[in-house]
Design goal:
This protein has 236 residues and is α/β, with parallel strands linked by helices. Among the domains are: 21-35 and 173-236, P-loop containing nucleotide triphosphate hydrolases (Rossmann fold, 3-Layer(aba) Sandwich); 81-156, no CATH class. It is built from 8 helices and 10 strands. The strands form 2 sheets. Strands 6-7-8-3-9-10 form a 6-stranded mixed beta sheet, with helices on both faces. A 4-stranded antiparallel beta sheet has the order 2-1-4-5, with helices on one face. α2 packs across α3 (105-118), α2 (90-100) runs parallel beside α4 and α3 (105-118) crosses α4 (134-146). The termini are far apart. The model has no long low-confidence stretch (mean pLDDT 90).
Amino acid sequence: MLTLSSIHKSYEGKPLLKGISLDLAEGEIISLLGPSGSGKSTLLRIISGLEEAESGDVLWDGMSIASVPSHERKFGLIFQDYALFPHLNVFDNVAFGLKMQKLRKEDIRQRVDEALKQVDLQGFAKRSVTDLSGGEQQRIALARALAPRPRLLMFDEPLGALDRRLREYLLVEIKEILDESGVPAIYVTHDHEEAFALADRILLLHEGLIVQQGTPDELFAHPASAWVEEFLGNRK
């Protein structure tokens, strides 16, 4: 499905991404895990088409999409700040991308109902998003991303503004929704507990390089370096 080939990117004259390559399989959930400044959010923006790599390629099913505009890639992107429209109600927020696709009103309503059911917020369609809790707003953001039936979902530190108890609850919800939908996903976080709870495979970034990748159990049991061991918090 998704393949990145030797992605390079600099920031303020300094290398930020130093030849990142990865593959994402059908239905797989991977986490880009690393400290602030490791390049993980920039990598996500390159995948989404919001930024361009200086060299390297982004491919989908073996075909380059590097020149395809972001809105034509059919990827869903979910941010920490939700990026909901405060002047629109829940229905119109979830329907926004569908209206941009010029779907019929009947199809839009069906897709919105389906997406709200997926995030367990049936009956919220007429609610104002400003009246919702942080957790509810994040689930509406997820519903909006799911409604156009994307071929890839991307999460950029989506739970960073929430308290730990709510984060733990929403992680379970997100995992269940992704497993049920079968949509592959890339989840960016600096929190290894989030990555371990959600991802099938973790790619650990440090100073613009993937320093180790594997399942959560593999990373925890066999850290590749002292830095990895320290970052994951399992120093003996």
